[in-house]
From TrEMBL:
InterPro entries: 4Fe4S_Fe-S-bd, Corrinoid_activation_enz. Gene3D superfamilies: 3.30.70.20. It comes from the Bacteria. This is 4Fe-4S ferredoxin. Pfam families: Fer4_6. It comes from Dissulfurirhabdus thermomarina. The lineage of its organism: Bacteria, Deltaproteobacteria, Dissulfurirhabdaceae, Dissulfurirhabdus.
Length: 252
């Protein structure tokens, strides 16, 4: 392919903190988080207009003029239409792992029976029963057709929240279907595509996004809201921010 001199995105890796805010705000899907840093997937997927610039909290993105592959609108459309959307085939969820690992087997634990509910501990010093109602919980492993997603109130939580919040099973999880991931180390574009597919497939009632206060977690609510917009469904989204000491700093 003959290169031409044109405008294209440039990423300063020293400034990039891997928050992923830029990824869902690139309509062409030319950006991904790889090894904790924003990366340009391919030169021909970037139109050079810089719509992502204003969403970078550290100023790591800028538009430069240099020799690059020409922008290819057909390549963008083909990539977005491929399985996994902007994430591409390589980022498809491992719902059917070649090793047959049971980690991806869909399981609905169902509502607690009368006896189970009656036997739940009530003393504050007694071990609390798990409020988890299904399996798997990792975003990449949950198929949009999973039965537990139907009419669900979703809790989309960053990986670190259950570790930090001391009463995750007592206050955040009850009554909700949890999906768990990391906006810093995982593929944000794949998350947008996955949630968009879930919101289009399952009649989800609401989404609560639980994230940590650290900047790299800020991309998670942006990912969910981007997917709600792409799905064209009026799904209410609220946000809960957890401090590094486990306290609830903000709840919308």
């Amino acid at each position: 392919m003959t290169k031409i001199k044109r405008q294209i995105i440039e990423i300063d890796e020293e400034l990039c903190n891997g928050c992923g805010e830029c990824v869902p705000n690139c309509a062409e899907g030319s950006l991904r988080i790889v090894d904790g840093k924003a990366r340009l997937v391919a030169e021909n997927l970037c139109d050079g207009l810089g719509a992502c610039l204003g969403h970078c909290p550290t100023g790591a993105l800028r538009i430069v003029e240099r020799e690059a592959d020409p922008f290819d609108e057909a390549a963008v459309e083909a990539m977005l239409a491929a399985p996994g959307g902007a994430a591409g085939p390589a980022s498809e969820p491992a719902a059917s792992l070649p090793c047959g690992c049971p980690s991806a087997q869909v399981q609905d634990f169902g509502a607690a029976g009368a006896c189970q509910a009656a036997n739940r501990p009530v003393r504050l010093d007694a071990p609390r029963a798990s409020a988890l109602t299904h399996w798997p919980v990792q975003i990449r492993l949950v198929p949009p057709t999973a039965p537990f997603l139907k009419d669900a109130d979703l809790l989309v939580t960053a990986d670190c929240v259950p570790a930090a919040h001391p009463d995750f099973h007592g206050t955040l999880l009850p009554g909700k279907v949890v999906l768990l991931g990391c906006p810093k180390f995982d593929d944000a574009a794949a998350y947008v595509a996955r949630f968009t597919e879930i919101f289009r497939t399952a009649p989800v009632r609401s989404v609560t996004v639980a994230r940590m206060e650290v900047p790299c977690c800020g991309g998670l609510p942006a990912i969910v809201r981007k997917a709600v917009e792409a799905a064209g469904r009026p799904i209410p989204v609220r946000e809960v921010v957890i401090g590094t000491r486990g306290e609830v700093l903000r709840a919308e």
